[in-house]
Amino acid sequence: VIENVDFADVTTNVATTKFTATAFDHKQATAGTAVAIHDTSYTTSVSDSFRASGIVTFHSSQSFSIVPETANGGTFESSAVASTLNKISAINVTTMAGAVDALKVVDRALDRVHMERAKFGALMSRMNVVIDNLTTISQSQRASKSRILDADFAKESSRLAKSQILQQSAMNMIAQASRTMQNVLVLFQG
Predict the structure, then answer these.
(1) Strands 57-58 and 2-3
(2) Between the CA of residue 75 and those of 65, 110, 160, what are the distances in Å?
């Protein structure tokens, strides 16, 4: 967020360019009327120039730094500047600027809390997907094991039926052979 923008060492050599500045309050609403910084009605020279100076304030919940661009003259001062974070204990809320700074710090802290909650929510969502996947795998494994046991039981049942049929056939053959022997004995006795 860029706030409190004034022109910071801006130089122009164009006489036909008109620059105006508009003030904003802490709610980013226009406060007052635009003021001419350079009016084109003053055409004293083709290479007329002016310089406007001021402050540009940046606000962020993260650390940042501003590095000047020296190749094109730059807009910011000639050395790199690192950000400083405001502490609640160091802010004087009895002034308008202090109260605004305190609200900005609280807003950034709330943004950070929301960001962390979103991260935890995403992590919980991924964990729920993994849990659901593992539950599905476990259920599939149990169903497969049950089908294997059912297949083994069916196989053993068919083996049992086969052996019972073979046993009954063998007993029938023995009984028939025994009767045949008795018939042969009856023929010899007769």
Answers:
(1) antiparallel
(2) 14, 32, 95
Domain residue limits, the chain: 2-85, 87-175
At 74, is the secondary structure helix, strand, or coil?
A: coil
Question: What backbone phi and psi angles, to 5 degrees, belong to 52?
Answer: -120, 135
pLDDT tens digit string along 73-121?
Answer: 545 555 656 666 667 777 888 888 888 888 888 888 898 899 999 999 9
Three-state DSSP state, 63:
coil
Q: Tokens 């304030």 correspond to what residue?
A: 57
* pLDDT tens figures, 57-81: 666 666 666 665 555 554 555 565 6
Q: What distance in Å separates the CA atoms of residue 172 and residue 169, rounded to the nearest whole number?
A: 5
Which stretches of the chain are DSSP H helices?
Answer: 96-189
Distances 39 to 11, 15, 20, 35 between C-alpha atoms, Å: 14, 9, 8, 10
* Phi, psi (deg, nearest 5) at residue 178: -65, -40
Tokens of 174: 């023995």
Are 35 and 20 contacting, i.e. CB atoms less than 8 angstroms apart? yes
